[in-house]
Specification:
Layout: H1 12-25, H2 36-64, E1 69-73, H3 83-90, H4 93-102, H5 107-111, H6 123-137, E2 142-147, E3 152-159, E4 162-168, E5 180-191, E6 194-199, E7 205-210, E8 213-225, E9 232-242, H7 245-251, H8 261-266, H9 284-307, H10 315-318, E10 319-324, H11 331-342, H12 347-357, E11 358-361, E12 372-374, H13 375-381, H14 383-403, H15 408-414, E13 417-418, E14 424-426, H16 427-434, E15 437-440, H17 443-453, H18 455-460, E16 465-467, H19 474-480, H20 483-493, H21 514-539, E17 548-553, H22 562-578, E18 587-592, H23 600-617, E19 626-630, H24 636-642, E20 648-651, H25 663-669, E21 673-676, H26 682-689, E22 695-696, H27 701-710, H28 714-720, H29 722-732, H30 745-751, H31 760-778, H32 781-793, H33 800-811
Parallel strand pairs: 1-2, 1-10, 2-9, 10-11, 11-15, 15-16, 17-18, 17-20, 18-19, 20-21, 21-22
Antiparallel strand pairs: 3-4, 5-8, 6-7, 8-9, 12-14, 13-14
Bound molecules: N-(acetylcarbamoyl)-beta-D-glucopyranosylamine.
N-(acetylcarbamoyl)-beta-D-glucopyranosylamine (AZC) is lined by residues 121-124, 127, 277-278, 325, 363-364, 369, 441, 470, 658-662, 680.
C-alpha cells in the first residue's frame, strides 16, 4: 500500500509516466496536441488515484477504531477547486510543479483550468467545506454527506449591468476528475404511497410504509485530504437515479401517462442546487431533495454500523449526526422510522437513540429562512414520517404541559406543528426537541438564539443551547490563496502555524518592526497588483494599486447592506465634485455578489452599483480618486484572488442579522482591516484585534430593537441629513441612467417609501464617519502596516481547527481530539 503524503515517497519519473499514460489512454489525446485543459484533467485523474487509495485506507482504519464518528449532513458543500488545495495538503505541490516544469508545463496555468464545484450558496456551504478540511487535518473520523447536484450554483454575468444567470455544469463534458462513483453503496429511497398495519411472525401489530415510488441514490466520493497526515475523508454526495417507469405504470394500473409524472419529478431531484441563501422557498422538489439526502445518508450510516456487527443501541456511542441547519432535519423521523419499523425497536428505545445521536446547528435568525413545511405535503410525500412527527410532538406537548401547566400560549409557540388554516411543520422545533446539542455560530448569535428565538426551549432543556464560533481553514484561506504572505510568516515563525494557527500570534512581536512592516506591505501590494492585472485582463479596467482596496464580497442581501456601501460611494462622489476642499486617499471599491434569481431588490442593487460604477469610473474630474468595480460570478476561486489583495473588509450588516460571517475572518487573517457593525463574529474579531485595529460603527443589537420598537421612520434621516439626501436624490434623478429614467428608483424607494427594513439610513452617518477614519488612518502607512499585521497575528481564534475542537470537546465529546 502506498500512502501519498508529505510527498516523501513521490517518484517524479513515475508520476510523469502516469500523467502521459492517462492523457493518452483515458483522454485519448496525444501529447503534442494536448491543451492545458487536457493536462488539467490528466493531472486530476492521476492525483485522484493517490487520494482514492488514501480514502479507502482511511476508511478501513476508521472502521477499526472504537471512537465516535462524525457524520456531517449538509445540503451544501461549497468546496471550491480541489487540485491546488489537495496538492498542498498531500505535500506534493512543489514536487509536482517541478515535475511539470520539466515537461514544459506550468502548474499555475493548469490549476486555472479547474471549474469550481459550486455545490453551495454561501457561508453555510463554505463552512461545511472548511469543517471537512479541519476534520481531516486533525485526523478525526468523519464523513461529509451531501448531494451530487448536476448543476451547481448558477453562473452570473452582467448584461448592461443587470445580473444574468446561466447553468453551471461544473463536471463539464468529461466528468470531474476528483470524484469516484461507489456503486456498492447504492441506497433505495421511497416517496409517496401509504402506511399499512400488519401482524409480524410473532403476531405483533406493526406498521410499514409502502412507497408509491422508489428511486436509487448513487454515491460519489470526493476526497477530503488532511494536511500532510495521510488521512483522506470522504465527502459523499448522493445522486438520484429513477428506475424503470414501467414498474410504476403497473403499480398505478390504468393511467399510464399520468403515472410517469412522479418519475419525471423524481428524476429532477439532484438536478439543481436551490439558489437561495438565507431564504426558503417551500417547493415540493426541495423537500424531495432534503428527504432523498437524509434517507441515503442515514441509510449509509446504519449500513456501516451494522456491517461491523455492532448493535443498534450502541449507535449514539459510535456515531453522531450533525445537522447543518434545518435542511437535513427530516433525517430525524427517518431514523425513528428505520429503528421502529425496520428494526423492531420500541418507540422509547428508538427515541433514546435519536436524542443521543443528533445535534443541530442554527445559522440564521431571519424569519424568512426558518423552514416550515406544509403538513399536507409531508403527509402526502412521506406519510409515515408525518405520523412520527405527530408522535414526537405529542410527547413534547406533554412535557410543555408539565413545565407550564395550562399555558396554551406556550404550547402553541413550542409545538412542532404550527396551527392555522394551513398547518405547518416547524423544522427548527423538531431539531431542537430531538437534538442533544443545539449551537449558534458566533457568541452574539448564540445569545440571540437563546434570548429571542428559543427562550422557552432554553428553559425546557437547560444547557442544550450553546455556541461554537465559526472558523475558516488556514490551509485554503492563507497558505493556498496567499503564498507570498505565507512565506514571510514562515520565514519568521516556521511553518507550524499551518497546522496550529495559534502559533501565528508570534507575528505580534514584529508588528512594530519596520522591516517586517515593509515586507508585509510589499506582499499586500503584490497581491493588489495580481488582482489588478486580472481585472485589467478580464474586464479592461485599470486599478491603481496605491489606492485603498475596499472589498465587500458575499451574497447580495438587504441585511448585508451593499446599498449602505453604495450610498457612501455616492457621498464621496458628490463631495469630490462639489466641495473643493474635500480630498480622499484614492479608493477602489470592489464588490462581488450573487443575488438569488427571484430576489428583485437584490438584483436592483447590483444594477445600481454597476450603473454608478460606469459613471464614476469614466468621470475624468475625479482624477482617479474613486473606482468602483463589481466583479461578476463571485465564487471560491475569485475570493481566493480578492481576499489577499484587500485593505478594507466591509462587514456592515444590520446588527443582529448576520449570524456570524466567515468572509470577515478570511479577510482579517489576510491583513485587511474590518469596517463593521457589532454583529456576528465581528464582535469577536474586535475582541481579538482590539479597538485600535478595527473600525466599528453603527447601532448595536439593542439599539436596533429599541429604534424599531419606537417606530422607525427613515424619512427623518433623509430630511435632516443633506449629504444623505443628495445621495438618495442622485438615485432618483437619473444621474446614472440619463437615457433610462427611473431605473434606479427602486433602491431609493426601498429605503424611503418601503420603510428601510434594515435601517440603512439610520447607520449612514456613523458609517461615513468610520470611513473617514479609515481614510485618515491609511495615510500613515507604518501605523496601517502595524494594524494589518496585528489582524493577521490576532485572528487565530477563527481557524476552523479551533471550531472543530470546540465541537469535539463540547458537543461530540470525542475522547481524543488529536
Ligand atoms: C450563513 C449566515 O448567514 C452567516 O452569517 C454564517 O457565517 C454562515 O451561515 C455560516 O454559519 N447562513 C446561511 O447561509 N444560511 C442559510 C439558511 O442559507
Amino acid at each position: 500500500m502506498t500512502m501519498y503524503s508529505h510527498g516523501s515517497n513521490f517518484d517524479k519519473e513515475q508520476f510523469q509516466r502516469e500523467l502521459r499514460q492517462v492523457l493518452k489512454s483515458q483522454l485519448a489525446v496525444i501529447e503534442k496536441n494536448a491543451t492545458t485543459k487536457d493536462w488539467y484533467l490528466a493531472l486530476g485523474r492521476v492525483l485522484s488515484q493517490y487520494t482514492s487509495m488514501n480514502l479507502l485506507d482511511t476508511e478501513a482504519f476508521i472502521d477499526g477504531e472504537k471512537t465516535r464518528k462524525i457524520n456531517y449532513l449538509s445540503l451544501e458543500f461549497l468546496i471550491g477547486r480541489l487540485t491546488g488545495n489537495n496538492l498542498i495538503n498531500l505535500g506534493l505541490y512543489e514536487k509536482i510543479e517541478e515535475a511539470l516544469q520539466e515537461m514544459d508545463l506550468a502548474l499555475s496555468d493548469i490549476l486555472e483550468e479547474e471549474r469550481d464545484p459550486a455545490l453551495g450558496n454561501g457561508g453555510l456551504g463554505r463552512l461545511a467545506a472548511c469543517f471537512m478540511d479541519s476534520l481531516a487535518s486533525q485526523a478525526l473520523p468523519a464523513v461529509g454527506y451531501g448531494l451530487h447536484y448536476e448543476y451547481g450554483l448558477f453562473k452570473q454575468s452582467f448584461a448592461a449591468g443587470r445580473q444574468v444567470e446561466s447553468p453551471d455544469t461544473w463536471r463539464e463534458a468529461l466528468g470531474y476528475p476528483w470524484e469516484r462513483r461507489r456503486p456498492e453503496l447504492t441506497q433505495t429511497v421511497g416517496f409517496w404511497g401509504h402506511v399499512e398495519q400488519y401482524s409480524d411472525d410473532r403476531g405483533k401489530l406493526r406498521k410499514r410504509w409502502v412507497p408509491g415510488l422508489k428511486v436509487e441514490g448513487i454515491a460519489w466520493d470526493l476526497p477530503v485530504v488532511g494536511y500532510q497526515n495521510e488521512i483522506t475523508l470522504p465527502l459523499r454526495l448522493w445522486e438520484c437515479h429513477t428506475g424503470d417507469p414501467f414498474d410504476l405504470a403497473r403499480f398505478n394500473e390504468g393511467d399510464f401517462v399520468g403515472a410517469q409524472y412522479p418519475v419525471l419529478e423524481a428524476s429532477n431531484i439532484t438536478k439543481v442546487l436551490y439558489p437561495n441563501d438565507n431564504h426558503e422557498q417551500g417547493k415540493t422538489l426541495r423537500l424531495m431533495q432534503q428527504y432523498f439526502h437524509c434517507a441515503c445518508s442515514v441509510g449509509d450510516i446504519l449500513r456501516r454500523h451494522l456491517a461491523l456487527g455492532r448493535e443498534l443501541k450502541t449507535l449514539p456511542k459510535l456515531e453522531t449526526i450533525q445537522l447543518n441547519d434545518t435542511h437535513p432535519v427530516i433525517a430525524i423521523p427517518e431514523l425513528m422510522r428505520l429503528l421502529i419499523d425496520d428494526h423492531d425497536l420500541s418507540w422509547d428505545e428508538a427515541w433514546d437513540i435519536c436524542t443521543r445521536t443528533f445535534a443541530y446547528t442554527n445559522h440564521t435568525l431571519l424569519p424568512e429562512a426558518l423552514e416550515t413545511w406544509s403538513e399536507g405535503l409531508i403527509a402526502h410525500l412521506l406519510p409515515r414520517h408525518m405520523e412520527i412527527i405527530f408522535d414526537i410532538n405529542h410527547e413534547l406537548m406533554v412535557k410543555v404541559q408539565q413545565q407550564w401547566p395550562g399555558d396554551i400560549g406556550k404550547m402553541s409557540k413550542l409545538s412542532i406543528i404550527q396551527e392555522g388554516d394551513h398547518r405547518q411543520v416547524r423544522m427548527a422545533n423538531l431539531a431542537v426537541v430531538t437534538s442533544y446539542a443545539v449551537n449558534g455560530v458566533a457568541a452574539l448569535h448564540s445569545d440571540l438564539v437563546k434570548r429571542d428565538l428559543f427562550p422557552e426551549f432554553d428553559k425546557l432543556y437547560p444547557r442544550k443551547l450553546t455556541n461554537v464560533t465559526n472558523g475558516v481553514t488556514p490551509r485554503r484561506w492563507i497558505k493556498a490563496c496567499n503564498p507570498a504572505l505565507s512565506s514571510i510568516i514562515t520565514e519568521k515563525l516556521g511553518d507550524g502555524w499551518i497546522r496550529e494557527l495559534s502559533e501565528i500570534e508570534g507575528l505580534k512581536a514584529f508588528a512594530d518592526d519596520k522591516e517586517f512592516q515593509q515586507a508585509f506591505m510589499t506582499v499586500k501590494k503584490a497581491n493588489k497588483q495580481k488582482l489588478a492585472d486580472w481585472v485589467e485582463e478580464h474586464h479592461g479596467i485599470t486599478l491603481n494599486t496605491d489606492a485603498i482596496f475596499d472589498v465587500q464580497i458575499k451574497r447580495l442581501h438587504e441585511y448585508k447592506r451593499q446599498h449602505l456601501n453604495l450610498l457612501h460611494i455616492l457621498s464621496l462622489y458628490h463631495r469630490l465634485l462639489n466641495e473643493p476642499e474635500f480630498d480622499i486617499h484614492p479608493r477602489v471599491f470592489i464588490f462581488a455578489a450573487k443575488a438569488a434569481p427571484g430576489y428583485a431588490i437584490a438584483k436592483d442593487i447590483i444594477y445600481a452599483i454597476n450603473r454608478v460604477a460606469e459613471t464614476v469610473n469614466n468621470d475624468q474630474r475625479l482624477n482617479d480618486k474613486l473606482k468602483v468595480i463589481f466583479l461578476p460570478d463571485y465564487r471560491v476561486s475569485l475570493a481566493e484572488l480578492i481576499i489577499p489583495a484587500a485593505d478594507i473588509s466591509e462587514q456592515i450588516s444590520t446588527a443582529g442579522k448576520e449570524a456570524s460571517g466567515t468572509g470577515n475572518m478570511k479577510l482579517a487573517m489576510n491583513g485587511a482591516l474590518t469596517i463593521g457593525t457589532m454583529d456576528g463574529a465581528n464582535v469577536e474579531i474586535r475582541e481579538e484585534v482590539g479597538d485600535d485595529n478595527i473600525f466599528i460603527f453603527g447601532l448595536k443589537v439593542d439599539e436596533v430593537k429599541a429604534l424599531q420598537a419606537r417606530g422607525y421612520d427613515s424619512f427623518i434621516y433623509y430630511d435632516s441629513d443633506p449629504q444623505l439626501k443628495a445621495c438618495l436624490n442622485m438615485l432618483q434623478d437619473d444621474t446614472f441612467t440619463p437615457e433610462r429614467p427611473g431605473e434606479l428608483i427602486s433602491v431609493a424607494r426601498n429605503l424611503l417609501d418601503y420603510g428601510d427594513p434594515y435601517l440603512v439610513l439610520a447607520d449612514f452617518s456613523a458609517y461615513c464617519d468610520a470611513q473617514c477614519a479609515v481614510d485618515k488612518s491609511y495615510r500613515d502607512q507604518s501605523s496601517w502596516a502595524k494594524k494589518a499585521i496585528l489582524n493577521t497575528a490576532l485572528t487565530s481564534k477563527f481557524s476552523s481547527d479551533r471550531s472543530i475542537q470546540d465541537y469535539a470537546n463540547n458537543i461530540w465529546r470525542l475522547s481524543s481530539v488529536r
